[in-house]
Amino acid sequence: MSSKEWPLWEVFIRSQHGLAHKHVGSLHATDAEMAINHARDVYTRRNEGLSIWVVRAADIVASSPSDKDPLFEPANSKVYRHPTFFPMPDEIKHM
Amino acid sequence: MKDNALFEFALRMGDTTLVLSQRLSAWCGHGPILEEDLALTNTALDLLGQARLWLSLAGEVEGAGRDEDALAYLRDAPAFRNPLLVERPNGNYADTMGRQFLFDVWHYFLLRELSASPDERVAGIAAKSLKEVTYHVRRSSDMVVRLGDGTPESHTKMQAAIDNLWPYTNELFQDDALDAAACEAGVGCHLGGLREAWMTQVREVLEEATLTVPDPDFPDYAAYTGGRQGRHTEALGYLLAEMQTLPRTYPGAKW
Q1: How far apart are the first and last CA of chain A?
Q2: Sites in chain A below the pLDDT cut of 50
Q3: Residues on chain A touching B35 (C-beta within 8 angstroms)
Q4: Residue numbers in A near B142 (CB within 8 A)
Q5: A81, B21, B213, B255: least buried by Cβ within 10 Å?
Q6: What does the alpha-carbon distance between residue B99 and residue B105 come to, in Å, rounded to a whole number?
Q7: Binding-face residues of B in 129-148 toward A, CB within 8 A
Q8: Chain B partners of A37 at a C-beta cutoff of 8 Å?
Q9: First and final C-alpha spacing in chain B
Q10: What is the ipTM of this complex?
Q11: Which contiguous run of DSSP H or E holds residue B43?
Q12: Prediction pTM value
């Protein structure tokens, strides 16, 4: 089973009460249709979800661990960047 | 009369799903790839769940104290009422997928009829099963197309699987006196009436798979029928011997 014929797919599932799709794992499949079928069998049989996204792993671009500092460090020392001083009305949920 | 018809009918449905589930379970850990392995096991468990519902209903209606376990594990081959198709050996993956596909399409149309049964126990089990079987059909049709329209070797194997299994499909549409009684009692349906829809869908998938559709009027040899009356192929005896070993060797075993 060469990985050329059976590329890797990443699977994202939105759970029953979830608001967003969450990465749950990966699998091998020849095309998108098979990937959806396999995702259903591998990842959703315990009522985990109601929506599945599959995407070829090759299509995902990830940030590099070596870029950690320039990408994620800068903001913490600057409190004015964090909108934590505003009271949040109760009607606005899930912020 | 109605109770007897329901008992026999539920037994046929229970045995059919039980035997196929047992067959599919044998693939566990031997599937061609991890994902297929899980998918087949899921199908096996779906069918086992359906078998439990049908056999429980049969036991309850019979009222002779036989529960689902007694019906599953303490009967010999001649007492089993499944069509011969589901007891055919697994063979290679194309054989298993061909068997699954030919069966799933039939199962789907049958359950669709049964879910409108005036008997609410039958309708309930059928409606629950139909959701699972709708997915089974989708999956097995997809695999038949992939294998048929795949490499020259997979095409040859898929065609051989369909050709070998084809003669066993006649039985799926043969109504006998029990079917007529079940139909009359509103707990079964006229199997012959499912043939056209089955043929149309099977033909569509086989053509998409670039496979040759076998002769629909294949001669109806007696050797390819009889399962639903208790006359089985040699294959069922071995299957039951394996399946029933534990409960027969250690009666009442619990863990």
Answers
A1: 45
A2: 1-3
A3: 27-29, 38, 41-42
A4: 33-34, 37
A5: B255
A6: 10
A7: 135, 138-139, 142, 146
A8: 39, 138-139, 142
A9: 39
A10: 0.70
A11: helix B34-62
A12: 0.87
